[in-house]
Amino acid sequence: MVSYLIEYMKLHLVSIEPDQEYVKEQMESLDMNSKDYAELDFEFNWLGGQIIATRHFIQIGEERERDERQSTETD
Fold it and tell me: Smallest Cα–Cα separation from 9: which of 67, 52, 69, 68?
């Protein structure tokens, strides 16, 4: 089950990283004081938070898998 979730999170990460890049590209063509820029800035940061959290969950899951493997090998 852990492996499945890790793989799912990796796919999710592959999906949201380009989304954030696309938002960044849209922001570059706007005036920083515009409402559209502010909305995109919020979305950019929201996606960034998802990326950070997803990477963290992947790391924890991979550590858990590694610990379980090592525990099984020593038994």
Answer: 52
pLDDT in tens, the chain (75 residues): 779 999 999 999 999 999 999 999 999 999 999 999 999 999 999 999 999 999 999 999 999 998 888 887 776
**3 state DSSP class of 22:** helix
Separation of alpha carbons 46 and 70, rounded Å: 36
Q: Which residue has the tokens 């960034």?
A: 48
**Residues across the chain:** 75
CA 32 to chain centre: 25
Rg (CA), the chain: 18
Q: What is the residue whose two structure tokens read 């899951």?
A: 61
Q: What is the pTM of this model?
A: 0.84
> Residue 29: phi, psi to the nearest 5?
-95, 5
